[in-house]
Amino acid sequence: MVRRLFLGLLFGAGCLDQNPYFVGPGSTGGPAMTTTDPMTTTDPATTTTDPATTGPSSASSTLTTSTTEPSPTTGEDTEYVGTDATGGSAATTTVGGAVCGDGKLEQDEQCDDGNLEDLDECSNACIATYCGDGVKQMDEDCDDGDMDPDGDCPAKCTLAACGDGWIQDNVEQCDDGNLEYDDGCDGDCLYTPKYVFVTSTLYNGAFGGLPGADMKCQTRAMAGDLPGEYQAWLSDMTDSPSTRMNKWPGRYMLVDGMTVVADNWDDLVSGAINEPIIQNEFGEISGMASDGCVKPAVYTNTKPNGASGGGATSCMNWMFPQGPSWWGDASASGKQWSDVCQGGECYQKAALYCFQQ
């Protein structure tokens, strides 16, 4: 029995593999594996082709460059486009050149307000806009492309209006920056009219010279409560209204404040007037029962153009009631208003024309 057991063990040992291996969990029990150190492992060989040093091949990537034309607003931009072996686009980057409207002041841009609006203070070309550039921006009433301060669109590019201090041609005579009246330029932007009247008082030709005649006009104006200073429409041998009076660019008006005698000085001396100077300092129609060559006679010695009639008809320079005179007709509007007749005597009674200065 013992011998049979010994023999069984002996024959079983002879069947054992001389190279045993251990089977771990999950093993299929296959052949033994050879394990190498990972530091000495060799991966399959790969080849990298640098497009900068080698020509293109079917296995390499290339970098192509395209240049876009500069736009009016951005300057020149260069696009770098990387493509793979199949020609597909890998990436696009825009570099260089200013971009108008990005809010960044770059290169030769005058401004960049972050938009491409053309009618604000910075145009869509990134050029600063200004009054007079001919483009009406949103904050401008007008822009006619010039800087004429007296045109329809003044230099500050706002429409002209009475009281803004800018004179609009063919509409305003003046503009003093306010709407006050009786300050030279009225609230309608017309020059304050100058009053004209014929004296209610009659005189002989001895006025005390031209200064004395002016004093008589001033006295009558004060009696009629009229503003300003006055001179007589009267000439001696040398001086005349054309040499000594202010040449007003505005209207000459009767004291009723409505009747226009002349639109301005040039109109006054044109040879005729718009309306006869028949109102006196009180605004009344003056009959003037004078004894000159006509019933409403006025001492003038003055031509309709404002020049002197000379010394022979000036009552000895208005110092003496002697000699002949030159007369006007207060009821006339043609040249007779200042030159209706010559002759008579300087002791005769007649009126004076008085003009506000």
Q: What would you say this structure looks like, in words?
A:
By secondary structure, this protein is α+β, with helices and mostly antiparallel strands. It folds into 3 domains: 61-113, no CATH class; 130-192, no CATH class; 194-356, Mannose-Binding Protein A, Chain A (Roll). Helix content is 11%, strand content 13%. It contains 5 helices and 11 strands, in the order H-E-E-E-E-H-E-H-E-E-H-E-H-E-E-E. The strands form 3 sheets. Strands 5-11-4-6-7 form a 5-stranded mixed beta sheet. Strands 1-2-3 form a 3-stranded antiparallel beta sheet, with no helix packed on it. It is rod-shaped, with a radius of gyration of 55 Å. The termini are far apart. Mean pLDDT is 77; it is low at 1-96.
Keywords:
Mannose-Binding Protein A, Chain A; single chain; 11% helix; 3 domains; 5-stranded mixed beta sheet; alpha+beta; 357 residues
How do you describe this structure in short?
With 357 residues, the chain is of the alpha+beta class.
Q: CATH H level of the largest domain: which superfamily?
A: Mannose-Binding Protein A, subunit A
Q: Strand arrangement, largest sheet?
A: 5-11-4-6-7
> For the report, how would you describe the main beta sheet?
5 strands, mixed
Helix content: 10-25%
Domain unit count: 3
Q: How many distinct beta strands?
A: 11
Strand and helix layout:
Layout lengths: L1 H13 L47 E6 L10 E6 L5 E7 L98 E5 L10 H15 L6 E3 L8 H4 L7 E3 L5 E3 L2 H4 L28 E3 L15 H4 L6 E5 L11 E3 L9 E4 L1
Parallel strand pairs: 4-6
Antiparallel strand pairs: 1-2, 2-3, 4-11, 5-11, 6-7, 8-9, 9-10
